Amino acid sequence: MDFDIFLQILIAAVAAGTPFVYAALGELITEKSGVLNLGVEGMMLVGAISGFIAMAKTGSLLVAVFVGMSAGALLSGIFAVLTLTLMANQVASGLALTIFGVGLSAFLGLEYTSIALPGVPEINLPLLAKIPVIGKLFFSFDILIYCSGLLFMAVSWFLYKSKAGLVLRGIGEAPKSAHALGYNVIKIRYMAVLFGGAMAGLGGVYLSVAYTPMWVEGMVAGRGWVSLALVVFATWRPARVMFGAYFFGAITIAQFHIQGFGFDIPAQLLSMMPYIATIIVLVLISRNQNTIRLNSPASLGITYHPDNQ
Amino acid sequence: MTSMKKQVLSVFILLACVAGFSLSAWAGDKLKVGFVYISPIGDAGWTYQHDLGRRELEKNLGDKIETKFIEGVPEGPEAERVIRDLAKSGHDLIFTTSFGYMNPTLKVAKMFPKKHFEHSTGYKTSKNVGTYMCRFYEGRYLTGIVAGKMSKSNVLGYVAAFPIPEVIRGINAFTLGARSVNPDVKVKVIWVNSWFDPGKEREASEALITQGADVITHHTDSTAPVLTAEEKGVYAIAYHSDMSKYGPKAHLTAATHVYGDFYTKTTQAVLDNTWKSEAVWSGIKEGSIKLAPMNPVVPADVVALVDKTTKAIADGSFHPFQGPVKDQSGKVVVEAGKSLSDKDLLGMNYYVEGVLGNVPK
Amino acid sequence: MLLSLGANPLSGYATMFTAAFGSLEGFSETTVKSIPLLLVGVGICIAFRANVINIGGEGQMVMGALLATAVALAFPAFPSFMLIPMVLMAGAVGGAFWGAIAGALKAYFNVSEILSTIMLNIVAVQFMNFLLRGPMIDPAEIERGTGIPQTMRLSENADLPILLEGMRMHLGVLVALLVAVGAYFLLWRTAIGFRIRSVGYNPDASRYAGISVPKNVTSALAFSGAMAGIAGAILVFGSESHRMVTDGGSTGFTGSAGFNGIVVALLAGLHPLWSVPSALLFGGMLVGANALQRAAQVPSALIIALNGLIVVFVVSSEYFKQRYAQAGRVEEPDDNDNGVIVTEGGNNE
Question: Is residue C133 a part of any domain in this protein?
Answer without folding.
Answer: yes
